[in-house]
Specification:
This protein is mainly beta and 259 residues long. The protein has a single domain (41-223, 234-240), classed as Exo-inulinase, domain 1 (Jelly Rolls, Sandwich), CATH 2.60.120.560. Helix content is 8%, strand content 42%. The chain contains one helix and 18 strands. The protein has one helix at residues 2-21, and strands at residues 24-25, 35-36, 42-45, 48-53, 63-67, 75-84, 89-97, 106-113, 123-126, 130-133, 137-141, 147-152, 164-171, 174-179, 182-189, 200-205, 211-222, 238-240. Strand 13 (164-171) and strand 14 form a beta hairpin. It is globular, with a radius of gyration of 19 Å.
């Protein structure tokens, strides 16, 4: 009887811990129930979600595995991901469908997962306003969409071919990206015409150089009580141009498509 009571007590404590934690797993570990992507490119194998780009011809454009459980607004998300191959991936959030690029096309905010250190964990908008802040840069967008650098710190250095935990915290117009608990980039978006306060969640499979995206954990916790940060530039803010890239896919040359 004591053993049973101890077991029940332990179970209650664990259940309470999960309830207080507030995170919900978005993958069941068996199949892609609740998700929508090209079945030729995405699968679940040995408990991992796997997306495979075999080269420039498959897929011919960036494509996404889209969560169909609803839209995300204010939330905290943790995802353990690796990208094998000289290419990149990303976590889309508060995004919208872009059907002109295909049935699984997406545009919107992205936490980049990129082998080039300056890009991994950056704040970025796929098929939209482009890069906001590189890894190590915190940026404010003013009401006209102009970028202001407000803080700099040492970039977070990781090997994206290894398992890393990516965290996104979205509260109102304040977006925070982290890798393994360290902040890579923050964005405060005052551009009312360009920003999104809710939208789709998805995982990117980048076309071009052959690569494999693997996901072994993805957990979401809705947040409440968030409000918009009013526009103000801190002392020392520097106006910057939109950052560009020398690494559109990985760190090496881009594999050309067959003619």
């Amino acid at each position: 009887m004591k053993s049973i009571l101890l077991l029940l007590t332990s179970f209650s404590l664990v259940s309470a811990s999960f309830a207080q934690d507030g995170f919900t797993s978005l993958f069941n570990g068996k199949d892609l129930t609740g998700w929508d992507g090209d079945p030729k490119l995405w699968k679940v194998e040995e408990g991992l979600v796997i997306g495979t780009c075999s080269g420039p011809e498959s897929p011919t454009t960036n494509t996404f595995l889209i969560w169909r459980g609803g839209v995300v607004k204010d939330f905290e998300l943790h995802a353990t991901i690796r990208v094998i191959g000289d290419n990149n991936s990303g976590i889309q959030y508060r995004s919208r469908a872009l059907p002109e690029t295909g049935p699984w096309g997406i545009t919107g905010y992205q936490c980049d997962i990129h082998p080039a250190i300056e890009h991994t964990g950056m704040t970025y908008e796929e098929k939209g306003r482009g890069i906001f802040g590189l890894n190590g840069k915190d940026v404010v967008l003013d009401t006209k969409g102009v970028r202001w650098l407000v803080a700099e710190h040492e970039p977070v250095k990781v090997d994206v071919s290894q398992w890393n935990e990516y965290t996104i915290i979205a509260r109102g117009n304040h977006l925070i990206h982290k890798i393994n608990g360290q902040i890579t980039s923050e964005l405060i978006d005052h551009d009312e015409k360009g920003r999104a306060l809710e939208g789709l969640l998805a995982i990117q499979l980048h076309h071009g150089n052959a690569n494999t995206v693997q996901i072994k954990d993805l957990r979401l916790k809705p947040l409440s009580g968030a409000s918009l940060i009013p526009f103000a530039l801190p002392p020392g803010a520097q106006k910057i141009d939109r950052p560009g890239t020398k690494h559109p896919q990985g760190t090496g040359p881009v594999t050309p498509a067959k003619k």
